[in-house]
Here is the input.
Amino acid sequence: MSKLQILVVEDDTPVRNLITTTLKTHNYRFVVATNGTEAVMEAASHNPDIILLDLGLPDIDGVEVIRRVRSWSHVPIIVISARSEDTDKIDALDAGADDYLTKPFSVEELLARLRVTQRRLILMQSGNHLQAMFVNGHLRIDYASGCAYLGEEEMHLTPIEYRLLCLLAQNIGKVLTHKFITQSVWGNSWGNEVGSLRVYMATLRKKLEKSAGSPQYIQTHVGIGYRMLKIDNPLKD
Ligand code: CA
Here is the structure.
């Protein structure tokens, strides 16, 4: 794979330097923007592979940058947030961000997020997530017949568990917020279904995960939502 180009949007010089030094050391190409307007312009002119976007920018809000970029591009966006409030991250994810990093973060965390996003990029480019048969580790979903399998065994899922599983699979690698999931599964109703979502997710995971303590397929983001992880080497029985 040729070197990926990352657009780094960060007004804080020390943080920006930490990111660009890390990218340089690990063989990524990058361009830099220090405010939101510049970010939107650079995204349009350089067509980067991934955007690393600070949410607190001096001119326009990071969430607004996401909305503008999303009007023409599906480029993966990893949000960087200094704010401890989850609501900012949730707004960013609902506006179309793929993942987030909370400041202060380590170089290892940054690299791990980039690797997850790269895997998602490869899946998106191959169109694998849109095929009739979804495969991830031991999990297979046959969309045409509406059946899911774990290894050779058919999973016995309720209709809602199946819809949850498909939603996560179709967005593999992306953090989905509670709001996004409940609206996709239950529709645009006003009720607070986060409680029910937790229950359905627990029963789905009981059927999917080998070990409840160390889930392989579905990652929990406390207070935010869930993500299906791409599995490279499934655990042996
Ligand atoms: Ca900032």
In short: The longest helix spans residues 107-126.
